[in-house]
Description:
The structure is a single chain. The chain has about 325 residues and is an alpha/beta fold. The chain has two domains: about 1-220, SGNH hydrolase (Rossmann fold, 3-Layer(aba) Sandwich), CATH 3.40.50; about 225-320, Immunoglobulins (Immunoglobulin-like). It is about 35% helix and about 25% strand. The protein is built from nine helices and 16 strands. A hairpin with a 2-residue loop joins β15 and β16 (about 300-310). α5 runs parallel beside α6. The protein is elongated. Residues about 1-20 and about 25-30 have low confidence and may be disordered.
Amino acid sequence: MLYSVKIFFFAVVAFLLSPLLLFTKTEAQTLPRNELQEKIVAIGDSITVGWPTCTGVTSEGCSCEGCYVPRLSVLSGMPAVNEGKNLDGMGAGSGYGAAHIDDYLEAHKPRTLTIYYGNNEPANVAYEVVIANLRYIVDRCLAYGTKPVIATLGPQFYDFSWRQPYIRQINQGIRQLAASRGIPLADLAAALWDKPYLFEKDGIHPTIAGHAVIADVFFRAINRCAYAVSPLIEYFKHSGGTGSVSVTTGTGSLCSWTAVSHVDWIVVMEASGGAGSGTVSYRVAYNNTGRERTGALTIAGETFTLSQKKVPSLNFLNLLLDE
């Protein structure tokens, strides 16, 4: 009962003060592009802190190895600093994050910063205010040179299921923000929706299993896969033969790819798919068509083009040129 009264009290206060929760900085000075450190800073509310395992204001002094921030450190191999806040029994909102983003950037100089705000603001803070706060946080990161990774909100169940329409609305704004800034999106909504078994009995905070899902989604977003395929063009004599193409991913072993031939005379022999960097081996058949031909493979989303000469005519000069 006391908890419900407290929630109601903060809801009323937040509603009355919602116009003041939009944190902006006019003529904000661009932060210096200091040398960034290979670390992840996670900002957010009580979910980021690790409640209910960690019940304090922050995660400091609390061991929650299964929570998403420590898991993210293990997955990435980088230190992960937990800057989540649990204020007066309620997690920090987007306004708090916007007010302190410069402090986080200057204190940690992180290469990557994850953003998970909005869970405590349904029906209490205007949708436009939350998105404006999140936009400010993202833009400060970009100005500093830090890569922001923003998350959509997970669902809320049981006594808080009435918040779902707001969550869908805020998630639409978060997706649009990520797209407009070209930053990675950790789509927690897609991963957690309709899965109440991944949440505590309060219907808001994830279980340890839920934290594992959150960590994995953030990790995949941080390591948004990019591929380098080399070479992209190759030439073969009429006799055919074998060749190989290198696939390089600078983003970790979770980045999967496939290799598919679009013609029957080029056969992928090994590594028709994989995860992480690898090599695609292929065999080119003898060209008995009487004409030059061109075929293609799609490798890790890139087009590899191979051209093959026809059988040369019985002409000494042409035989030399074919070689």
